[in-house]
Amino acid sequence: MGITFFILVFLALFLFFSGIFTVRQQTAYMIERLGKFHSVRTAGLQFKVPFIDRTVGRINLKIQQLDVVVETKTKDNVFVRLKVSVQFKVLDESIYEAFYKLQNPTEQITAYVFDTVRSEVPKMRLDDVFERKDDIALAIRRELEDAMNEYGYGIVKALVTDIDPDQAVKNAMNHINAAERQKLSAEYEAESERIRIVARAKAEAESKRLQGQGIADQRREIARGLEESVDLLNKVGINSQEASALILVTQHYDTLQQIGQHSNSNLILLPNAPTAASDMLTQMITSFVSTQELAEQMKIKNKRPNPNVKVLDKPKEEIYLDARSEEKE
């Protein structure tokens, strides 16, 4: 009797502990009783009736991600591969539908992604696909939410993570982009060169202006100095011609001295004889004298009467009457 009691107690404890189980966080267990759905067990310590209740499945309540690669054609007949990442999860209030209504949720989601992408992308050109990828992702999410909520699945987010055209198309796009950048670079270089040319021209013009102003100032000071020198020489009894000749000879020798200071100078001064200064002085005096004589002759010539011009001593009326009488005769 005692042994039988202990055996029964042992069996009862064994059956009791065999019905105890734990459920992990973010996980749900599906319990069936005699082949029929009985309950959903969530995280914590749970109990099921041994040999009557049975765990038929486990549902993951975490957010899951499914990557789908779709190849399709754009409006401008370019084949492109899109990688779509769909984040989904089982709704807490629809665990029963997620387990019993849908056999393979990933295949269902993949089919809807293919359908949506191949209906949206052919309406766009390749450049529009890159610019409007968020619109494509929004269309995928909206389509999946309408379809998958019925089966207990919620769509957290849909992302177009990659757009990969054919390699030849990518090379052509890179070539176009490079050409545009080269064109822009050439425009910038041309503008920079234009600015440099304008700045160089302005600087040269300013340099010429200042150089001309300096030459004008130099000549003005030379003329003032010559005038002062002539005035000073006139005070000591030297006339203007002699003073000019003396100044010219002095400048001639100053020029020879400056040329001699530069050993690498290629300048040749002609004539270069020792008597060049005296000859120059003689020529200048001769030219001055000739100029004065010519001026005097012009004045005398202008004072003489013209022999071809007749001087009329009679009044105009007498000349007119004499002419009439001569015509009658």
TrEMBL record:
Question: Where is the Band domain positioned along the sequence?
Answer: 18-177
Q: Supply one GO CC term from the record.
A: membrane
What is its subcellular localisation? Membrane
Q: What InterPro entries does the record point to? A: Band7/mec-2_domain (IPR050710), Band_7 (IPR001107), Band_7/SPFH_dom_sf (IPR036013)
- Note the topology in the membrane: Single-pass membrane protein
**Matching Pfam families, A to Z?**
Band_7
| Record-linked PANTHER family | STOMATIN-LIKE PROTEIN 2, MITOCHONDRIAL
Provide the protein name.
Band 7 protein
- Look up and give the organism this protein is from: Haliscomenobacter hydrossis (strain ATCC 27775 / DSM 1100 / LMG 10767 / O)
